[in-house]
UniProtKB/TrEMBL annotation:
Protein name: Phosphate ABC transporter substrate-binding protein
Residue ranges of every copy of the PBP domain listed in the record: 35-272
InterPro entries per record: PBP_domain (IPR024370), Phosphate_ABC_transporter (IPR050811)
Signal peptide as annotated in the record: 1-22
Pfam families xrefs: PBP_like_2
Keyword list, A-Z: Signal
Domain of life: Bacteria
Length: 305
């Protein structure tokens, strides 16, 4: 009987060592600049991340796949170990951070840009101004709101969560609120229906895919007035950078890999000079503005002959 338990014990030890070796081999095949990994991406941030990945892969021997989901689905994937890298418009909550710490993983959060929520309307709607208080009144089911209806990409999206936080509510009301699956579907719906106001990530308006341009041409991006403010501001790069636009938000890459893998390398890349130039070119606001070198010559020579 003792010999039986010894054999069982040896079996489990060998199994544990084998599993560890497989894990180490997997990590060994991935460095900060090489290998293959998957990143969970908030659907409203898809354009900027696709641009970043395209350049990153052209410079290094790496393959980064993206899984585009709603914000809640991205968080769930992190907690379920389906993925260890995520792009979000919020940091992890204390409870979410504690979850990883209990697993001996310390999430690394990197702020890399600032974008905004855009409110859009059909071009047939002559009014291109809207007060944030009107939106809050509408989602709080107050009768004095002038809004006919709000259109969201997804009830579990970052845009829905953002507006709920602004209004101090947990969930969006059922009446007058419509939701689809993606920002592109919101753009299509608003371009075809007068009187509705769409709530989308501004990145999807600044960098639309070619197929969406015809719909973009049929909408207006509204100027928004903050609570207790008299001025209206559009979500331009300058207004977001100066803090004038009231629906601005920060963007983060959250790395829960627990080792020196592509999560660390990609975070360093998008927060570095090249990544920040891509952010700037996309119409969003970089965390650090790329430097520009000026060469001053004492003499001007005429090279033309």
């Amino acid at each position: 009987m003792k010999m039986y338990f010894k054999i069982i014990g040896v079996f489990f030890i060998l199994f544990f060592v084998s599993c560890n070796q497989k894990s180490e081999t997997k990590n060994a095949n991935e460095t900060i600049l090489t290998g293959n990994t998957t990143i969970e991406v908030d659907e409203t941030l898809k354009p900027i991340i696709e641009s970043q990945i395209q350049v990153f892969e052209s410079l290094y021997k790496a393959k980064i796949n993206i899984a585009v989901k709603s914000e809640k689905e991205v968080i769930q994937s992190l907690l379920n170990n389906s993925s260890r890298i995520a792009i979000l418009s919020r940091v992890l909550t204390k409870q979410e951070t504690t979850f990883f710490e209990n697993k001996k993983l310390i999430p690394k959060t990197t702020l890399f840009a600032k974008d905004a929520i855009a409110l859009i309307a059909n071009k047939n709607n002559k009014d291109t101004l809207i007060a944030l208080q009107e939106v809050i009144d509408f989602v709080q089911n107050k009768k004095q709101s002038k809004i006919k209806g709000l259109v969201f990409d997804n009830p579990n999206s970052s845009t829905a969560r953002f507006i709920c936080e602004k209004a101090g509510i947990k969930n969006l009301p059922e009446n007058g609120v419509f939701s689809f699956k993606t920002n592109d579907e919101v753009l299509k719906y608003v371009s075809q229906n007068n009187g509705m106001i769409g709530v989308v990530g501004v990145n999807c308006v600044f960098e639309p895919i070619p197929e969406m341009q015809s719909y973009i041409d049929k909408i207006n991006v509204l100027e928004v007035k903050d609570i207790n403010n008299i001025n209206y501001y559009s979500p331009t790069q300058n207004n977001i950078a100066e803090g004038k636009y009231p629906l601005a938000r920060d963007l983060y890459i959250i790395n829960c890999q627990g080792y020196s893998g592509l999560g660390m390398g990609f975070a360093s890349f998008i927060a570095g000079d090249i990544g920040q130039r891509i952010v700037l070119k996309s119409g969003l606001v970089p965390v650090t503005f790329p430097s520009r070198k000026l060469y001053i010559r004492k003499e001007i020579s005429n090279d033309k002959k």
